């Protein structure tokens, strides 16, 4: 048996799905987290039932691609029962969808979710009356607390045994009754299914129905009066039915004018003046807690004495300052991985080629990636809390105006924000955007938002550059650089490629609620699993390949100098391309070029490739065997021929270039066009090249920035001048067309 | 008196009379509950002056002034 969960966005379908199937799908507190259907199974007393979680929809007239997924599934795949999840705290709008689902010839039940939240306000839904009004079984549940779920499944299984015929609450509305009756007759004659549903859709003039049954649609269309707005009549009739039959169905007093807790929080967080500063401070606080080596700037204020004698204590908690929690965890992990690395190195026989493969290749490559796990988890802990609380939906509200300037809407903020985690779900989340133009543009900008896999690069370089004094600023700076580049390229894309009006922004703002501990942990666990999986597969595999390519020459001999190796030879041919970017210069330049290119496969590869190179530098090993990785890598990075500007250019290149093969795959999945995906790849590489060249040259010769500012000012000046001349001509055109 | 939704000030409310404008946006506004006789309260305006947040049918909806202009209210 197959049950489908259908309902409004953010009504708790995924929470219910997780509770039923024991799976750990991602749940968030904003509309549209689920963008594709998801299947699992419910097992109890030897019964196995398939459960399908569908993307949230407001109506069965789809508006966005993910809504099409839901509608097609409900209609074409014929689940045995449709479980219509209804948010009891927001009954009126949720039941609007119910009036549409009940038009289908499918057994259905109503799962009244969040009854516990309602009960807190001493209110209750009259379940019996609700069941009578809609003619389907109603079960009270709390998906979050796991209450009423078995009862719900029992009722649903019973409903599946029966047959249900579609029923409409609007078919008798005077303005359309005749038309609907005739349409029903035509569909019945043609032997169609879901007659009631299709008739109403045909009367409304629904595009999907037109594509499905063009002949009948046309016949019905001939009867339609062009002066009448049928969609308005149908929508109005549905809401009228709900108001008429369901007023007073909830006992107890509504909140009324008194401000709820949620409203009070909202008043502060979306304040006209303080809203944006608060957002920036929250974001900075998150990065400070995760990466700072001078927590609360206690060290800078001179509150912590520093000691000269090195100690493990200082390595972990900082010297002359206190490390932020994220940094402390990182240090612990780093000590653990490097001790383990030493242990493995000690156990291997000396002077054999495969010990070098294990120690310098796999161990230093994979462990360099693993030691960043604590900081990644801390960062995502904060982001997950912000998302789960409902704050992120407000950020979309606050930022919409700014986004519209760039041809996007506040809604594209959500997918782009996900890209800070990983570009793959971020790109997939662009399904929630209505406008294809906006969707494509959001995908083009997605890689500029620094993802979790890039974090180790920033963290490693942050710990090395300037003696690790400003690592939080460097990391924060990379995130900001990504955002700035995204904004600039959005402006350029809107000006030259995606011209025209911005798409609409109509979005529900969910109530704030306390983040769920379980939810947050599930989210973190998934991140961890994903990261470990990649470390064990693609990263471990690639480090082995790179180790061989950097240790074997074209004549399949082990080499002394890596410069003679296969990869070394190839990279040296191409590294002149990266000389303008600073990091291609010098004796070790080609290593950074290889690292940057391995980053196109997966960004975790950048640090692990550099780790592999660094691990092979004998002298680096001798300097400090305690912290093998960071010191060896430190020697490599501080030895860059282009100096710190080249290091920043290298980071910028990794930030902006093709994010990873998985993201390219996801982008292709959304764009469905070879031409578009190549354009996107070309665009990412071009931006990465240009920006990192600028970073290097401005970092080396600061006065170049003055030339740049002058050029930009000139460009703006020319644009203003051109616009003015256009305006002067425009009125004439108007009078002409007026004639 | 007749007013457009984007002309309300925070704290003011009205009853939906009709919706005009682009077909697709109109459809979405209907689905979100902006149908004749619905009570709408303007909650607040975003820091940058747009979009706006309204309360209707017991929930919070955010939309831009450009879309709100299509909603004709009786106040």
Textual characterization of the structure:
The complex is a heterodimer of chains A (739) and B (75). By secondary structure, chain A is mostly helical. Among the domains of chain A are: 160 residues, Rossmann fold; 75 residues, Helix Hairpins; 34 residues. In chain A, 61% of the residues lie in helices and 6% in strands. Chain A has 33 helices and nine strands. Chain A has a six-stranded mixed β-sheet, with helices on both faces. In chain A, helix 3 links the parallel strand 4 and strand 5. In chain A, helix 15 packs antiparallel against helix 16. The longest helix of chain A is centred in the C-terminal third of the chain and has 35 residues. Chain A starts with a strand and ends with a helix. With 75 residues, chain B is an alpha+beta fold. Chain B has a single domain, classed as Ferrous iron transport protein A (FeoA) (SH3 type barrels). Chain B has a six-stranded antiparallel β-sheet. Chain B is globular and about 30 Å long. The termini of chain B are close together. Chains A and B meet through helix 3, helix 11, helix 18 and strand 9 of A and helix 1 and strand 5 of B. Strand 9 of chain A pairs antiparallel with strand 5 of chain B.
In short:
The complex is a heterodimer of chains A (739) and B (75). Chain A is mainly α.
Shape descriptor of chain B reads globular
Task: Give the helix proportion of chain B (percent range).
Answer: 10-25%
Number of helices of chain A: 33
CATH homologous superfamily descriptor of chain B: Ferrous iron transport protein A (FeoA)
Quick one: biggest sheet of chain B? 6 strands, antiparallel
Number of domains of chain B: 1
